[in-house]
Amino acid sequence: MFEPKTELVPLGSAFSQQGLAQMSGGMHRQATREIEHVQAQALIADTREQGRALLTNTALQNVGALTALEQHLIQVAPLGEGRYKHIVDAYAMGAAQAISRW
Q: Whose CA is closest to 9, among 19, 23, 24?
């Protein structure tokens, strides 16, 4: 389970760990909860970006492989060129939409 740290990058005494220690108990707990929330949101955003990058990488590799196959099939069976292009374009469009939704 993710356990956020409550140490802050010093931006001034009010935002340092020392500044937190000088707060009253209630303010300290509230600030700690908010810090943990911000850190959790940052971790979630980072995870989403890593997921989007993985999907993009996979989609690009697949489109490259499908395009190479398309080119080969056009040479072998040129009458299917329009269909091959349509299928590869449809895959690429679907992959782009999936990445956009992610």
A: 19
| Angle, alpha carbons 31-21-3 (nearest 5°) | 55
Kindly give the parts of the chain with pLDDT less than 50: 10, 13
Give the 3-state secondary structure of residue 86.
helix
Two structure tokens written together for 2: 């993710």
| First vs last C-alpha separation in the chain | 23
**Which tokens sit at 31?**
């600030």
Q: How far is 92 from 64, CA to CA, in rounded Å?
A: 10
With contact defined as beta carbons under 8 Å apart, do 95 and 52 qualify? Answer: no
